[in-house]
Write a structure and sequence with these properties.
This protein is α+β, with helices and mostly antiparallel strands. The chain has two domains: about 190 residues, Distorted Sandwich (Beta-galactosidase, Chain A, domain 5), CATH 2.70.98.40; about 425 residues, Glycosyltransferase (Alpha/alpha barrel), CATH 1.50.10.10. It is about 25% helix and about 25% strand. It contains 14 helices and 36 strands. A hairpin with a 4-residue loop joins β31 and β32. α4 runs antiparallel to α5, α8 crosses α9 and α9 runs antiparallel to α10. The protein starts with a strand and ends with a strand.
Length: about 700
C-alpha cells in the first residue's frame, strides 16, 4: 500500500526522491491513476488509453521487476492512428481501437480500423481492417526501444536513456552490460528494420473488407545469477500445481447474480485481478500467495497477503494454506525477543503516529487465518504442520505485551495502537481455540491474557466526551491517548470465527460497540464512497492521505463485516452500497485506495494518483463486501454451516454459486426480504440459519 517503507527495494512504492542539490525539484513518483494495467504476474503491461507505448512515465511491458519494452509506437500511412477506445477485456488483457483515414476514403469516414490486443505476458496482436471501397497500400511502422530499467527507477522518473539496439532474427535485441537481454520478435517478419532508429517496417496491402495482422512477442533473457528468487520482487514464473487444486482454478467457478447487475461485474473483475496477482514459489509449487499490487508492490507483503487470504476464504482455503506455509518459513526462530515474529517492513501511519510494523500485524494475523481456514474446511493434515508456527506467534504476543499488557507496534518501543490490540485479542482467542482443538498447551494462558486485555482496553482506550465517547487511536508513552478517529477503529468490530459459527468476544462492551457503529456510520467517516481512514473533522485530514483520509477498500470491507455481525445493518449497508457505487466508476476494478472526498449528487469518486490497481487487498475486499451480505458462518470441524444474511438485503436478491465450504462447492440464494437458502453444500454438513 501507499506509504510503505520497504525492506526489499523491489517491493515498496518508490518514495519521493530528495531535492536536487541545485534546489530544483527532483523527479517524483509517476502517476498511474489513468493507466490501463494488465497483469499476469510476474509480468504486466502499462499504457494510457490510447495504447501507444511512448517510453514516457511508466509505459511498457514489464517482467520480474524490469521494463522489457518501453516504447512501441505505431504509425500507419505516416500518421498516428486516432484513438477511439482503450479498455481492459480481462485482468491480463487490454484492447485498443483506433482509426486511420487514407486517400481511398471518399468522405470524412475513416476506412481503416486498427485493433491492438495486448497481453500482460508480452504478446501483442495488431490487426488492420479495411472498409475502403478500393484496395489500399499502407506503410506500417513500429518504433520500438527500451532502457531495461528496474521498476523502482522507472517509477521515480530516474530511468536511464534507451539502449542501442541491434537487428535480431525477425525483430530487435537490446542488452545491458550485466548480460540482461530484451528481445522483440514480429510475425510476419518486417520487410525492413532500422536498428539505429528502432524501426520495424511493413508494406501492407488491403483489399476491401480484408484484414492483416502483425504479432509481437517480447521476452526477457537474464543470466542465472540475476534471476529473481521465489521471495523476490515478482517471484518465479508460476510452477505447476496439482490439477484442479490451484486457487485460480477454484475461483473461476465463483459467480454472483442478482437484482443489481454490478454485483456480477464486481465479483468477476475481482477474481480476475486475484488470478493475475497470484504467484507460486518454485521451490514449493503447491504454495500460492498474492503479491501486494501493481505496479508498485510486486512482491510478498506478509500482512496484506494474509488479509487477502482471509478475505477470500469463502472462495476456498487453497490460497490461505499456501500463504501460511510460505510465511511460516520466514518466521523467526530461536530464543531472542523476536522469536516467533514474522518479519515485515515499516509502514507510514498518517499524520498523528510514527510508522508501524507490518510484521507485527502479520504475526497477529497468522493464527487467525489458520483458525478460520480450518472452520471453512482446511483439512487437519494441513493444519497440523502449521501449529508450531501458531505457538510461536502466541509466544511472541505474550512476550511483547510484557508488563503493560498491550502490544507495542513496532515492538518494543510502541506506541500501543488501537487496531493492534484488536488484532492481538483476536489472535489470542482464535489461537487458543486452535491449540485446544489439537490438544496443544498454551490455550488457557492466551485466553486469560485476552480477558485481561479486554478489561485494560475498556479502561485505558476509551475517551469519554459529550457525544458518547470514542476509542483512542493509540496510547503514547505514559498512557497519553491519541484522540483522533479513523477507519482503523473498525478492527474493533472484527472479532473472528469460533466453533459452531460463533463470533469471538470483542474488546468493547455492547454500549461502546453501539457508539462505535454510530461513529463509523457518521458523515465524518462514511464518505458516501466508503470508510475514510481519518475522519473529515480530524486535524491533519487529507482526502488523498493513505491513512490520513483516503478510502481504503479492505478497511471498508472489515467495517461492513463487523457492523453486520454486530447487528448494525443500516451502517453496514450504507458503506457497502457506497463502495459498490465507487466500483462502478472505476470500471469495477477497485484500487487499493481512493480519495475520501464527501460524495455529492452527481459526483464521482476521485482516484488516488499513486494507488496500486489491481491490488490484492482491494480485490479480495471487493469479493468480501459482496459475500458479507450472505452471512455464511461455517464450522466444518463441527459438521455444520449457518447462513445469516443481512435482513436489510442491501444488494437486493442475490445468488452466489461456486463458493467453497469443506473443500466442496457451496451455493446459496438471498431473497429481497433478506432470507437465505442454501442450494448446494457438501454431503454431511448440517445446515442452519
Amino acid at each position: 500500500m501507499q506509504g510503505m517503507v520497504p525492506t526489499d527495494p523491489t517491493v515498496g512504492r518508490p518514495a519521493p526522491p530528495p531535492r536536487a542539490a541545485t534546489g530544483r525539484a527532483a523527479p517524483t513518483p509517476q502517476p498511474v491513476h489513468r493507466a490501463l494495467i494488465c497483469v499476469s504476474m510476474p509480468a504486466f503491461a502499462i499504457s494510457d488509453e490510447h495504447g501507444q507505448l511512448t517510453g514516457q512515465g511508466l509505459d511498457g511491458f514489464y517482467r520480474s521487476g524490469r521494463r522489457v519494452l518501453a516504447r512501441c509506437r505505431l504509425r500507419v500511412a505516416g500518421q498516428d492512428p486516432l484513438p477511439v477506445q482503450g479498455q481492459l477485456v480481462g485482468a491480463d488483457r487490454a484492447r485498443f481501437v483506433s482509426t486511420v483515414r487514407t486517400s481511398a476514403d471518399p468522405g470524412p469516414d475513416p476506412g481503416v480500423s486498427v485493433e491492438r490486443l495486448r497481453h500482460a505476458d508480452g504478446t501483442e496482436r495488431i490487426t488492420l481492417r479495411s472498409a475502403s471501397p478500393r484496395a489500399v497500400r499502407l506503410p506500417v511502422e513500429l518504433a520500438v526501444g527500451t532502457d531495461l530499467a528496474e521498476l523502482a527507477a522507472v517509477g521515480t522518473g530516474l530511468a536511464g536513456p534507451e539502449l542501442p539496439g541491434s537487428v535480431h532474427d525477425s525483430g530487435m535485441r537490446w542488452a545491458t552490460t550485466g548480460g540482461i537481454h530484451a528481445v522483440v520478435a514480429a510475425d510476419p517478419a518486417p520487410t525492413d528494420t532500422l536498428a539505429h532508429a528502432g524501426l520495424l517496417r511493413w508494406d501492407v496491402e488491403l483489399d476491401p473488407g480484408a484484414a492483416h495482422s502483425i504479432e509481437l512477442r517480447v521476452r526477457l533473457e537474464t543470466p542465472p545469477a540475476t534471476r529473481p528468487t521465489a521471495m523476490g520482487a515478482a517471484a518465479a514464473a508460476p510452477a505447476a500445481a496439482p490439477p484442479g487444486q490451484s486457487p485460480e482454478h477454484l475461483w473461476r467457478a465463483a459467480r454472483a447474480q442478482g437484482d443489481d447487475a454490478r454485483v456480477e461485474d464486481l465479483l468477476r473483475t475481482a477474481l480476475g485481478d486475484l488470478c493475475g496477482l497470484l504467484v507460486r514459489d518454485r521451490g514449493h509449487p503447491a504454495d500460492s500467495y498474492l503479491v501486494a499490487g501493481v505496479p508498485w508492490r510486486c512482491g510478498l507483503a506478509p500482512a496484506e497477503a494474509l488479509w487477502a487470504a482471509r478475505l477470500t476464504l469463502p472462495l476456498g482455503t487453497r490460497l490461505a494454506a499456501g500463504t501460511l506455509r510460505t510465511l511460516a518459513r520466514t518466521q523467526r526462530t530461536g530464543r531472542g525477543s523476536d522469536a516467533g515474529h514474522i518479519p515485515g517492513s515499516l509502514r507510514h501511519s498518517g499524520p498523528h503516529l510514527p510508522p508501524g510494523c507490518t510484521g507485527v500485524e502479520a504475526t497477529l494475523l497468522f493464527p487467525v487465518v489458520l483458525a478460520e481456514a480450518r472452520r471453512w474446511g482446511l483439512p487437519d493434515r494441513e493444519v497440523g504442520p502449521l501449529l508450531d508456527a501458531v505457538e510461536g506467534c502466541l509466544r511472541w504476543l505474550l512476550a511483547a505485551a510484557g508488563e503493560s499488557g498491550f502490544i507495542p507496534d513496532p515492538a518494543p518501543g510502541g506506541p500501543y495502537r488501537c487496531e493492534t490490540q484488536a488484532h492481538a485479542h483476536r489472535a489470542a482467542l482464535l489461537g487458543a481455540d486452535l491449540l485446544d482443538a489439537y490438544g496443544r498447551p498454551g490455550g488457557a494462558q492466551a485466553r486469560e491474557w485476552a480477558a485481561a486485555l479486554r478489561g485494560r482496553f475498556r479502561e485505558d482506550f476509551w475517551i469519554d466526551d459529550l457525544a458518547g465517547g470514542r476509542p483512542a487511536a493509540a496510547l503514547l508513552a505514559g498512557g497519553r491517548p491519541v484522540a483522533h478517529l479513523g477507519g482503523a477503529a473498525a478492527h474493533l468490530l472484527d472479532t473472528g470465527l469460533l466453533g459452531g459459527g460463533r463470533l469471538a468476544a470483542g474488546l468493547l462492551d455492547p454500549a461502546r460497540t453501539e457508539q462505535l457503529a454510530r461513529l463509523l456510520g457518521s458523515p465524518a467517516l462514511d464518505s458516501g464512497w466508503g470508510l475514510r481512514s481519518l475522519g473529515a473533522k480530524e486535524p491533519g485530514h487529507n482526502p488523498f492521505g493513505h491513512r490520513g483520509g483516503a478510502v481504503r477498500v479492505h478497511e471498508t470491507a472489515v467495517a461492513v463485516a463487523g457492523l453486520a455481525a454486530a447487528g448494525y445493518e443500516k451502517e453496514a449497508g450504507a458503506l457497502l452500497r457506497g463502495a459498490l457505487d465507487a466500483a462502478q466508476h472505476f470500471g469495477h476494478r477497485l484500487p487499493e485506495m481512493y480519495a475520501g472526498e464527501q460524495r455529492v449528487t452527481g459526483g464521482v469518486p476521485l482516484p488516488h494518483p499513486a494507488a496500486c490497481r489491481p491490488a490484492a487487498v482491494a480485490a479480495a475486499g471487493a469479493a468480501q463486501l459482496l459475500i458479507t451480505a450472505a452471512g455464511v458462518r461455517p464450522d466444518v470441524p463441527g459438521g455444520s454451516v449457518a447462513v445469516r444474511p443481512m435482513h436489510t438485503a442491501p444488494l437486493g436478491a442475490v445468488q452466489f454459486t461456486g463458493l467453497r465450504v469443506a473443500e466442496q462447492p457451496f451455493a446459496l440464494r438471498v431473497s429481497r426480504l433478506g432470507l437465505g437458502m442454501v442450494e448446494e453444500a457438501a454431503d454431511g454438513l448440517q445446515l442452519g440459519g
